[in-house]
Specification:
By secondary structure, the protein is α/β, with parallel strands linked by helices. The protein folds into two domains: 73 residues; 335 residues, Purple Acid Phosphatase, chain A, domain 2 (4-Layer Sandwich), CATH 3.60.21.10. The chain contains eleven helices and 19 strands. Strands 2, 3, 4, 5, 14, 15, 16 and 17 form an eight-stranded mixed β-sheet that branches. A seven-stranded mixed β-sheet has the order 1-7-8-10-11-13-12. 37% of the residues are buried.
Amino acid sequence: MVFVLDEEFFIIMKKKRRKKRKSHFLNIMLIFWTVFGTVIIAGMLLFLLHKSMGKNSGTAEREEDSLEAVSEMETGNILREEESAVSVSEQPEVPTPEDGQEEEAEEEPAGKYDDILSDGTYMAENNIYAKETAKEGEVTIAFAGDILFDPSYSVMAGLLQRANGIYDCISADLMDEMKNADIMMINNEFPYSGRGTPTEGKQFTFRAKPESASILEEMGVDIVSLANNHAYDYGKDALLDTFEILSDIGMPYVGAGHNLEEAARPVYFIAGDLKIAIVSATQIERMDNPDTKEATETEPGVFRCLNPDKLLEAVRAAKENSDFVIVYIHWGTENTAEVDWAQLDQGPKIADAGADLIIGDHPHCLQPIQYVNGVPVVYSLGNFWFNSREVDTCLVKAVIGEDGLKSLQFVPALQKGCVTSMLHEDEKNRVLDYMRSISPKIMIDEEGFITEKVQ
């Protein structure tokens, strides 16, 4: 019995020990996982804390760098301000305006034609050219008579044999006068072309080689008149070539065109804040069916004015669109100093239509100068560089200002042996005396300046 109780006691105790070991194992596992979890959480917290501290440290460093940069900038500004202050203190004091006064900015006055000058398309469409002037507020225009570049005639044949070309054919002082003018104009008494045939039955027919047009530039020419009785000598094709050749070298021409509208159109120069119009026409030949064809609405030709109505209309239109109007006209009787009926008839009409200056050519000799209804008329400039004959000639210089014509000067010259030279001293006085003798209604002083006599 006692043995039985002991066995049962041992069995019970054994069971209790097993239960106790199991409980102990569970406790150990709980402790392990608790410690493990705590370590993991602590590690994560430490990692996050370290990362956060790194960001704060970088921000602090950047803020420190920024503060240092700002400090350097402020230091630099202070130094520059100090240097500026020193520099200003070394400069003389500029007086300030008194109370109530304001400094006004000086502005250059705008030219009255600036809008036109800024529009190249408009200028091209309306035959307008810009020119610089030697003197502010005035324009000097020089005029010469007939020239000839046909190599079949003496003057051009002589030029081709001379070493210096046109410079051996026009004296240096006369060439200077031409080039020093703001605008230089001549009568181009021939076409430029390699085409066409001479007009049948015409005694003299002229044609120049296209390349000879460059001589105009050497002479200082700025505009040519084609309103004469030789521009059509080799027919329509040669005249059309002339328009193209002159356009190619940038040389304005007046008095002929592809049609009547173009032939009658003035050339305008804007120079010295003045707009100057030049109109050109020809009376010659004086017949109903001339060899030199008149421009029509559809055909090329010259601007004819034997009937002056269209010319007068062109002058009136030019007057409305410019400050000063010049009419360069081919008229008169050849080789005589006497003014003819058609010149006397048309001169006053042209003046009354609005011309401010009338310049004539064609007679191949000098003719009188007079004032017609207050307008100076130079009836003929004569030959300029046209043949081998010895003949007195001239350059006429007009100076134009805001109030109109300021001066008109006759510059004596001589064409002789295919050379044209400016005259001086006794020869100059001889020609001036001759002009006084045939121009009783004007005065010409010793330098050739022209004024109207007071009646």
